[in-house]
Amino acid sequence: MAVKGLGEVDQKYDGSNLRIGILHARWNKKIIDALVEGAVKRLQEFGVKPENIIVETVPGSFELPYGSKLFVEKQKRLGKPLDAVIPIGVLIKGSTMHFEYICDSTTHQLMKLNFELDIPVIFGVLTCLTEEQAEARAGLIEGKMHNHGEDWGAAAVEMAVKFN
């Protein structure tokens, strides 16, 4: 597999004043848990305080776009706006077209949310052909690949800091 990930960040960003939301699907729990853990780890490495990392769940990846919108709006209503949100999901191809429809609609709607919410919405959805590919991208297969959740955490801090 030739997946390299985010690579080196262009500088060390200070996330100490950020509030970052993570909204994750509950399907494929083992993989999701590892991705969330990777994102949280990287956010904290960039100085985001644990109390400023807000984690919430939705049933599945299809619910991530609308759930992200409601999540961001709720935090704003509470007077605690988010600086970025990381929707995390895992889609694994099965034997029907379901995979293609969910991947396509979820991807497009998450991209649109960046402009609708006016905050970074990081694309944290794995779209894999096999469970092994998903496990590798979650860092669960030693020596195979890194945890992509770490990339998403780094991207959230960079996007929230760099352009504000």
From TrEMBL:
<keyword id="KW-0808">Transferase</keyword>
<dbReference type="InterPro" id="IPR002180">
    <property type="entry name" value="LS/RS"/>
</dbReference>
<dbReference type="InterPro" id="IPR036467">
    <property type="entry name" value="LS/RS_sf"/>
</dbReference>
<protein>
    <recommendedName>
        <fullName>6,7-dimethyl-8-ribityllumazine synthase</fullName>
        <ecNumber>2.5.1.78</ecNumber>
    </recommendedName>
</protein>
<keyword id="KW-0686">Riboflavin biosynthesis</keyword>
<dbReference type="GO" id="GO:0005758">
    <property type="term" value="C:mitochondrial intermembrane space"/>
</dbReference>
<comment type="similarity">
    <text>Belongs to the DMRL synthase family.</text>
</comment>
<dbReference type="GO" id="GO:0009349">
    <property type="term" value="C:riboflavin synthase complex"/>
</dbReference>
<dbReference type="GO" id="GO:0000906">
    <property type="term" value="F:6,7-dimethyl-8-ribityllumazine synthase activity"/>
</dbReference>
<comment type="pathway">
    <text>Cofactor biosynthesis; riboflavin biosynthesis; riboflavin from 2-hydroxy-3-oxobutyl phosphate and 5-amino-6-(D-ribitylamino)uracil: step 1/2.</text>
</comment>
<comment type="subunit">
    <text>Homopentamer.</text>
</comment>
<dbReference type="GO" id="GO:0009231">
    <property type="term" value="P:riboflavin biosynthetic process"/>
</dbReference>
<comment type="function">
    <text>Catalyzes the formation of 6,7-dimethyl-8-ribityllumazine by condensation of 5-amino-6-(D-ribitylamino)uracil with 3,4-dihydroxy-2-butanone 4-phosphate. This is the penultimate step in the biosynthesis of riboflavin.</text>
</comment>
<dbReference type="InterPro" id="IPR034964">
    <property type="entry name" value="LS"/>
</dbReference>
<dbReference type="Pfam" id="PF00885">
    <property type="entry name" value="DMRL_synthase"/>
</dbReference>
